[in-house]
Amino acid sequence: MTALDSSKPDINRDSPPRRSLIGTYPNHWLYSSSPPSFDLTRPSPPEYALPSPKESISLSTTTTPTVISPSKTALVIIDMQNFFLSTCLGRPADGAGNNAKRGLLDTAIPAARKAGVQIIWLNWGLTDEDIEHMPPSTRRAFGFVAALEGEGKGESLPAIDAHGVNQAAAEQFMQDKNGVLEEKELTENGKPKRIYKGLGSEIGPVRTEDGNVVDAGRLLMRDTWNAALPPALDAAYKKGQLLKEKPDVWMHKNRMSGLWGSSTPCTKYLEQEGIKTLLFAGVNTDQCVGGSLQDAFTKGWDCILLKDACGTTSPDFAKECVEFNSARTWGFVTDCNGLEKGVEAMLEAR
Fold first, then answer.
1. Are strands 66-68 and 249-253 parallel, antiparallel or unpaired?
2. What angle do CA 221, 306, 227 make, to 5 degrees?
3. For the segment 20-49, what is each residue's pLDDT rounded down to a tens digit?
4. Mean pLDDT of the chain
5. Is 178 exposed, middle or buried (0-12, 13-18, 19+ CB in 10 A)?
6. Three-state secondary-structure class, residue 203
7. Positions of the chain with pLDDT under 70
8. Does residue 193 sit in helix, strand or coil?
9. Which residues contact 268 (CB under 8 A, 6 or more apart)?
10. pTM score, two decimals?
């Protein structure tokens, strides 16, 4: 039995197959007992007809197989930006985020395109107004500055807090620097280690993989290098923009979740387009991806986590917690190959 083999003993094998209506039309699922499966396509009453294999995607999951409608589904790719993925900023090429990038480029994005699934790129993209109203709890995760007592009003240095993007620096220097560190003292492999002073702060120059030096811009602000997609993902996005039907869309977000509060550009778009099912991918699994997924679940969208199209720098237990709850409470968990196989089966049935 593979990790995604959801064939389990049928507890109803001695009873006639049953179908259960979950929810109220038009927002409902159907559950079939034999073989066990969830139909998320929302068929119309009174027949609640089974979905055509020519127009629906059957997904193996870590729990129960699900059937989704490509016309009502979106692949939501979260925060796959230079700041989180670029080796020029010290992100490992073989790290979890870049492994997720390869899964998206090689498998998930091509499968979604073949099926006619909408692709949404949901990314940090801040404005000065966003920064002005950003709560301290969110600010802390991306660094902040500390004014040095007695050193003049204009002088400040990064505050080293064992949390968020500066955690590694904090763990190295917190003990002997009392929480404040001079940037020149941060080194890694003989080169200066980057230390971040918070959302909207200047990152400084970065030497890219082609040898050019670019201004990385202000941290996660719109239209900056650090908030842009890495080259391969950017090429995929631009290709998707040229589609005549369902071109790729880019959504800015200003919190870890892209679906927080009463309304966001993402929630408005999903409602406008009649999208009911969301396939989640991106970084970090347990932070921006998990936060967006939980808000989507709370607001009534179907949530399916593409586990190998997600990555995180957190310990394994953090990722496992999100995957466990995604499978058992918030929705379902599958992987890129599961999506690809489901799409191939649909196309072969036509």
1. unpaired
2. 10
3. 999 999 999 999 998 999 999 999 999 999
4. 88
5. exposed
6. coil
7. 1-16, 146-195
8. coil
9. none
10. 0.88
